[in-house]
Design a protein that fits this description.
Length: 152
């Protein structure tokens, strides 16, 4: 992982070696997927993330990264599925709630988006960068209220 964090190309070799030796296979596949995402190879990353989950269906980082991949490619239902799986596995993983708020917002579910954002705030109260998303949700809620009650 140190090599990976330093951007060393040998990191991929060591992850493959770990897989071949049966050492922390799910984590190695997940990290290989991150390398391939950095290289722009989404298809290979998708394969490696699913292999990670094959070896450990509760690997939270694989669910989270797979959800991010789906989100980036516009598949919001699959992104939501994997974010929700990550929340079930690791309820204190704050970034999942932020991303869930984004997915729910894209799906037009303002109530669920606001709840996910509130949970994120509980877990990461120091993050001041969420104000824009909070404002967006408020505007969306107002628009929704106006469309259902034209007298407002």
């Amino acid at each position: 992982m140190i090599l990976h964090e330093q951007g060393d190309a040998k990191a991929a070799e060591y992850y493959l070696e770990a897989i071949n030796e049966g050492d922390n296979i799910a984590e190695a596949y997940c990290n290989l997927a991150l390398i391939n995402l950095e290289l722009g190879d989404s298809a290979k990353a998708l394969d490696q993330l699913t292999l990670s989950l094959k070896h450990d269906p509760r690997h939270v980082e694989a669910h989270y990264n797979l959800a991010n991949l789906y989100y980036d490619h516009g598949d919001f239902p699959l992104a939501r599925l994997h974010y929700e799986a990550a929340v079930q596995i690791e309820p204190a993983f704050s970034l999942v709630y932020f991303n869930l708020a984004l997915v729910y917002h894209r799906a037009g579910n303002v109530t669920a988006a606001a709840a996910a954002l509130a949970r994120y705030r509980e877990l990461a109260p120091e993050d001041k960068d969420i104000e824009a998303l909070d404002e967006l949700l408020k505007v969306r809620a107002e628009m929704s209220n106006r469309s259902t009650n034209p007298n407002l």
